[in-house]
TrEMBL record:
GO terms for biological process: regulation of DNA-templated transcription. Residues 12-125 form the Response regulatory domain. This is DNA-binding response OmpR family regulator. The modification 4-aspartylphosphate is found at residue 61. Residues 137-235 bind DNA. It holds the Pfam family Trans_reg_C. GO terms for cellular component: cytosol; protein-DNA complex.
């Protein structure tokens, strides 16, 4: 399938890192990719810059002086659904998972390839900026769960759920393919649109979805784990 790159070109990207060299290298590669780049060295600067003129995507280092990256991500999520690509060090798995749980879209581990980061940014932007085709079907109903693809709204037992854009995409994909098992690599490609990346991103998003749609997240009945494969969505019917 051919991918249109035009949606991701010329977008405003806010790069937040306290290391001048990292900021400068990332800026150069992103500008080569056609993006407009704004730099910030602290969490305070990043939040002020975003408040003055929102970015289309934020590249965010987790280890920042003052307000750290996790808090910046949390505050951004309170006001916007802007895509966030985190920069993390090798030993920061706990913080990386926390960032994904806050709604970050992807992460790149330091030391990283600037070219790979630019590709990740373009991939996330392309998906975020793409205009989805008009859905050919009405809301998807599975028992007490209703998903409206047009309004991008999810209602469970009469209450509307708060899902990130990626969580919604993942849930809709599962509902569109009920009963079919997918590997994490397949989900990464078909939901995220990436043919590379850390599959733990999928694991974290599945966990978050279970916490929101399962009665007992530790014993899921909708999003089943298929051992040795990945995940499968099991329809609950009208009960």
């Amino acid at each position: 399938m051919t991918t249109d790159n035009s949606a991701s070109v010329g977008r405003r990207v806010l790069v937040v890192d306290d290391d001048f060299t990292v900021r400068d290298v990332v800026r150069r590669y992103l500008e080569l990719a056609g993006h407009q780049v704004v730099l910030a060295g602290t969490g305070e600067e990043a939040l002020a810059s975003f408040a003055e003129q929102p970015a289309d995507l934020v590249v965010l280092d987790l280890m920042l002086p003052g307000i750290d990256g996790l808090e910046v991500c949390r505050r951004l999520r309170d006001r916007s659904a802007v895509p966030v690509v985190m920069l993390t060090a090798l030993g920061e798995e706990e913080n990386r998972i926390a960032g994904l749980q806050l709604g970050a879209d992807d992460y790149v581990t330091k030391p990283f390839s600037p070219r790979e980061l630019a590709l990740r940014v373009s991939s996330v932007l392309r998906r975020a900026m793409a205009t989805p085709p008009a859905p050919a079907k009405a809301s998807i109903v599975d028992g007490d769960l209703t998903v409206d693809p047009v309004a991008r709204k999810v209602v469970l037992r009469g209450a509307e759920l708060s899902l990130t854009g990626r969580e919604f995409d993942l849930l809709q994909f599962f509902l569109d393919n009920q009963g079919t098992a997918f590997t994490r690599a397949e989900l990464l490609e078909r939901v995220w649109g990436w043919d590379f990346g850390d599959q733990s991103t999928v694991t974290v998003h599945v966990r978050r979805l279970r916490e929101k749609i399962e009665a007992v997240p530790a014993k899921p009945v909708r999003i089943a784990t298929v051992w040795g494969v990945g995940y499968r969505y099991d329809r609950q019917g009208s009960s």
